[in-house]
Design a protein that fits this description.
The chain contains ten helices and six strands, in the order βαααααβαβααβαββα. By secondary structure, it is of the alpha/beta class. The chain folds into two domains: 5-18 and 107-244, HAD superfamily/HAD-like (Rossmann fold), CATH 3.40.50; 20-103.
Amino acid sequence: MSVRLITIDFWNTLVDSSNGEGRNQHRAETMLAEAERLGRTLSIEDVHEAGHQAWAFFRHLWLEEQRTPQTDEMVLHMWATLEMPADPEAVQRVTEVYRRGILLHPPSVLPGVAAALPRLAESFELAIVSDTAVSSGEVLREVLANAGLLRFFSHFSFSDETGVAKPHPKAFYRVLEAAGVDPTGALHIGDIERTDIDGARNLGMEAILYAGDHGNSVVKSDVTSTRARMVAHHWDQITEALLDGHIWRM
């Protein structure tokens, strides 16, 4: 097999979930401020509970319908749960804080990523294939740019932009077609078996299951039972397999 294109997941593969507490606090405080302005008396616990219900709504769409809600859908779900009065301008203000809050409290780049990407980009074309949640694909590009990583990627497939979530084939074909690469000439790296690995393998792509984010509490994949070609616990292993070990080399 000759790999020309490597597609990579964003969350828990390139970056971790750190600073989530700061992001959530900033977002919740914004919701509380708008509630007070509109005459609603809420507690921080009320907002957090509405957030939990919005995430349950997210998971249903993500797992059952293979799509992820837009940021304003998540905010409107919370708005209804909190019985907030209709105010489109207030909803828009809260939505922007939820969408862009990650820029104030960014996640950390996972160990080895900053060294691996420039080396891989010398031999392969790189693309992002990632599901989004509260932060939009547009904002996640800014996160990559701020971390000095955006320049290594030629193509992007974010679920809020494609309208589908992995393992839907369109999530992968968005970048495969843009790069002019057949699935058999591509490899995907991600941390979730049912979305990343199954999505790629179902199309005939090769796959690496990344299991190096030990703080990942969203989805734990069984590394002993995977369709991936290999399981990597550090990005150094990926670089060695793809370059130094001459596996999948162009």
